[in-house]
Amino acid sequence: MIALADCNNFYVSCERVFQPSLEDRPVIVLSNNDGCAVARSNEAKALGIPMGAPYHQIKRLCGRNGVSVFSSNYELYGDMSRRVVSVLSRFVPEMEIYSIDESFLNLGGFSDPLGLSGRIRETVRKWTGIPISVGLGKTKTLAKLANRLAKKEHAGCLQVEAGNRSTLGSVPIEDVWGVGRRLSVRLRRLGFQDAWAFAQAPSSAIRAIGGVTLERTQRELTGISCLAMEEVPQPRKNTCCSRSFGKPVTGRGELEEAVANYAVRATRKVRAEGSLACGLQVFLSTNRFRKDQPQYSNSRTISLDEPTDDPIRIVKNAKALLNSIYRKGYSYKKAGVLLLDLVSGGSRQGLLFEEHGDGRRRDFVNALDEVAARYGQSGAFLAAQGVRRSWSMKRQSRTARYTTCWDELPVAS
DNA sequence: TCTGGGGTCCTAGGACCC
DNA sequence: TCTGGGGTCCTAGGACCC
Predict the structure, then answer these.
(1) What is the pLDDT of residues A244-253, one digit of tens each?
(2) Cβ atoms within 10 A of the Cβ of A323, count?
């Protein structure tokens, strides 16, 4: 038996823990750059605010209805997520952290999985303040489906059997995990409107529509497990850092600064995991929503002659790539840096004519990381990253980093 | 005016090889 | 007129997820 523990409206719930007055009121949390609504309280959902709604389109609706609006506070959400996971892990020997707000738990061998799920739910709420729902099923896809239903009713916990025609029949096809917008349109056209009809369909038809991936989803719904639990997280293969700009950017200099910053951040992630990058990609683009402006987007990729985690080298290469795709006269909205084909530091393949260990460079980079960790991004940075950073993203209503920053601890008065 | 960021996997098609 | 067969590797693009 597999359980999916999923935090309800996670980012909103995190904000509510530190501002209890937000309970029972409409609340939304915005994406980076205060762009879209990415988390909504039930009250905000009831107002008709869809997932991913651009904020400028719902701003007036929010004003009229007294919706509390927050910029995203990823430091807080990341820390709250770790707390939830630590509670979950006390109950089960095997679990897979699937995302910032979801974990699969292996409840095989427990005599009363549903009862246990209820206790887990209560404990997480009590110890972290975060409300969760738990769905149970024989496979991950069934657990996921059960979780959806548990959220709406069933007191937050529900178990679903593969053969339950009325339950599966009540789930629209687009709500099945692994069936997105495109595939659901095609499946509906063929008459597979709900999870039950989809599960009963001839597998050859399903394979023709969505390949082996969709066929796996179908089998999972019939109770045949195709997606294993991954208790040990697989090392990342690529990593990316990109942001849209707070204002349109036209100058090469500003773009270079932005790209240098993204390169440093991406490299820091890779270093933290003990990996090295073998490839590097830089991309940039104008605002695709502005039909009245000339559009341009481009990217360029190189393979590095030696796997590296050296931010100075990455920044240098990234700037060169940027300059090879930069075109004057456009109003840019977004740029990003990808580090590709990551390999673990241990299995590093040396170069025939490698320059061996520059110890001073290594010490310097470590010091840079340490200072940045202690005093924040502005504590120490490369000159290429710029000082004014006029392009940086909007984040007008972020709450304090209550749990990770000494200066921002909540104060009781 | 204003529209997120970070991932994974699969497939088709082209380049290239013998 | 008639122009092989079988394989690998890489990349771009499409689909999905949170």
Answers:
(1) 999 999 999 9
(2) 14
